[in-house]
Amino acid sequence: MLGKLNRGFESHPLRHAPHGAWLRHAENLQFAAYNPPVPHFHYVYVLRSLKDGGFYIGSTDDLKARMHRHEGGNVRATKSRRPFELIFYEAYRSLYDAKRREIYLKTSKGKTALGTMLRFFLAESDCSEEPGGEGTEPGTSQDL
């Protein structure tokens, strides 16, 4: 036998050190704080008017600020339909992808896809807004 094969890690100083030795060595190391860059997102969102039940589809790069503008009446397209609730949004890293998705969701095929994605939410909210939807007993005339 030619001897022990060198696998490459036997020369590491902490490989066979007693438990906790790495702590003594770590005090001598300089660790730089790692702050990863915050990714910038572009959002496509869907609002539902609590006044008329209609939807508004839009895009922005600051969703909170845009919601404040909608609620404050500073957006001409939605000023007369306030208040709103945010029911759906998607985040994209690319402005092009977000705009493309917004345009798609405004088509009839996109609205169908959106309705499919939100079918359970929309079904729940439709039931709770119907007159007599809450507090009724099963078997009453409203269930028939």
Topology:
Layout: H1 21-26, E1 42-49, E2 55-60, H2 63-71, E3 84-92, H3 95-105, H4 108-117, H5 119-129
Antiparallel strand pairs: 1-2, 1-3
In short:
With 144 residues, this protein is α+β, with helices and mostly antiparallel strands. The protein has helices spanning 21-26, 63-71, 95-105, 108-117, 119-129, and strands at 42-49, 55-60, 84-92. The chain has a three-stranded antiparallel sheet.
CATH class group of the domain at 42-126 = Alpha Beta
* Strand residues, percent: 15-25%
Look at the helices and sheets and give the structural class. alpha+beta
**Poorly predicted segments:** 130-144
Which CATH-level-2 architecture of the domain at 42-126? 3-Layer(aba) Sandwich
Helical percent range? 25-40%
Distance between the termini: 89 Å
Return Rg in Å. Answer: 29 Å
Strand order of the largest sheet: 2-1-3
Question: Describe it for me?
Answer:
With 144 residues, this protein is an alpha+beta fold. The chain has a domain at 42-126: GIY-YIG endonuclease, CATH 3.40.1440. Helices cover 33% and strands 16% of the residues. The protein has helices spanning 21-26, 63-71, 95-105, 108-117, 119-129; strands at 42-49, 55-60, 84-92. It has a three-stranded antiparallel sheet with strand order 2-1-3. Strand 1 (42-49) and strand 2 form a beta hairpin. The termini are far apart.
Which tags fit this structure?
three-stranded antiparallel β-sheet, 16% strand, elongated, 144 residues, GIY-YIG endonuclease, alpha+beta, 5 helices, disordered C terminus
